[in-house]
Design goal:
Layout lengths: L2 E12 L2 E12 L3 E5 L6 H8 L7 E6 L4 E2 L5 H7 L1 E4 L11 H11 L5 H4 L4 H13 L15 H14 L4 E5 L7 H14 L4 E5 L3 H7 L2 E6 L2 E6 L1 H5 L2 H7 L3
Parallel strand pairs: 3-8, 3-9, 6-7, 7-8
Antiparallel strand pairs: 1-2, 1-4, 4-5, 9-10
Helix pairs in contact: 3-5, 3-6, 5-6, 6-7
Bound molecules: adenosine-5'-diphosphate.
GO molecular function: ATP binding; ATP hydrolysis activity
InterPro entries: ABC_AA/LPS_Transport, ABC_transporter-like_ATP-bd, ABC_transptr_urea_ATP-bd_UrtD, P-loop_NTPase
Organism: Actibacterium pelagium
Length: 246
C-alpha cells in the first residue's frame, strides 16, 4: 500500500503544554484506520493539524505521491487537495431534501462561483443516486433532511463529503448517539468508502472499532503508544494501564 499521508516528528504546544509530542505515522492509500486514545490524548489536535486548523511547531506533514507539504496551506487549500473532515455533530441543511443537500455538496466541489451558474445535469443526477445508494438513503431522497433520524443525518453528511471526492476522509466519533442498527450501517458505509479512498476514524466505541476490522493507532500524550490490530493493542500492558489511568 503506498503512503498517502505521512506525519513525521510533529509537535504542537499550547501555552507551554505539548498536546502533540513528536508524532509520526503514515496512512496508506485507500486504508481504513481507527485512532483511539483516552481523553486528552491528542486525537482532535491531530485532525486539526492535518486539516490546517492548527499549525504544528515542528515536524512534517506530507501528502500524496508527490509528498507535497501541507504545512503553510490553509484549510480551504487542504480540503481542495482532497482531505475531508466529518465533525461529530451533523451539519446538514435541515430545510432541504436529501437530494438537494447532496446536490449542494456537488456544487461546492466546483469552486466558489459554481453555485451561481449551476444546473442539474444527468451526470449529477446519476452521481447523487450513487451517493444516496452508498449511504443507504436511496429511499429518502426527497425527504426533508430535518426529518431524518440522527443516524441518517450523519450518513447524509458522510455522503456530502464523499460528493467532494476526498482521497482521505477524517471522521470524528461517527457512532456517537447511534442505535446499534445505525452503528452497524455506519460500519458498512465506512468500510465500503475505504475501498476507494483512505478513511481515518476517531472513535471511543470499541465494539464499533472491532467491526471496522482495521489497523488501530493508540495515541497517548500526543504520541503513538501502540499500533496494530485491535486485539494486539488492547493486550498491550501500557495501553491497558493508560486506559485504566494507572
Ligand atoms: P483528544 O481529542 O484526544 O481528547 P485533544 O487533541 O482535544 O485530545 O487535546 C489534547 C490536549 O491538548 C488536551 O490536554 C487538551 O486540554 C489540550 N488542548 C487542546 N486544544 C487546546 C487549546 N486550544 N489550548 C490549550 N490546550 C489545548
Amino acid at each position: 500500500m503506498s503512503t498517502l499521508l505521512e506525519v513525521s516528528g510533529v509537535s504542537v504546544t499550547f501555552d507551554g503544554f505539548r498536546a502533540i509530542n513528536n508524532l509520526s505515522f503514515r496512512i496508506g492509500d485507500a486504508e481504513l484506520r481507527a485512532i483511539i486514545g483516552p481523553n486528552g490524548a491528542g486525537k482532535t489536535t491531530f485532525m486539526d493539524i492535518v486539516t490546517g486548523k492548527t499549525r504544528p511547531d515542528e515536524g512534517r506533514i506530507l501528502w500524496g505521491e508527490k509528498s507535497q507539504s501541507l504545512l503553510g496551506m490553509n484549510e480551504a487549500k487542504i480540503a481542495q487537495a482532497g482531505i475531508g473532515r466529518k465533525f461529530q455533530k451533523p451539519t446538514v441543511f435541515e430545510e432541504q431534501t436529501v437530494f438537494e443537500n447532496l446536490q449542494m455538496a456537488l456544487k461546492n466541489d466546483r469552486g466558489p462561483f459554481s453555485v451561481l451558474f449551476y444546473k442539474t445535469n444527468p451526470r449529477d443526477q446519476e452521481r447523487i443516486g450513487e451517493l444516496a445508494e452508498e449511504i443507504g438513503l436511496s429511499d429518502q431522497l426527497y425527504r426533508k433532511s430535518g426529518e431524518l433520524s440522527h443516524g441518517q443525518k450523519q450518513w447524509l453528511e458522510i455522503g456530502m463529503l464523499l460528493a467532494q471526492e476526498p482521497r482521505l476522509l477524517l471522521v470524528d466519533e461517527p457512532a456517537a448517539g447511534m442505535t446499534p442498527a445505525e452503528r452497524e450501517h455506519t460500519t458498512t458505509i465506512l468500510v465500503e468508502a475505504a475501498k476507494t479512498r483512505a478513511v481515518v476514524v476517531v472513535e471511543h466505541d470499541m465494539e464499533f472499532i472491532r467491526r471496522l476490522n482495521c489497523k488501530v493507532t493508540v495515541l497517548h500524550e500526543g504520541s503513538v503508544l501502540a499500533e496494530g490490530s485491535l486485539d494486539h493493542v488492547t493486550s498491550n500492558q501500557e495501553v491497558i494501564d493508560v486506559y485504566l489511568g494507572r
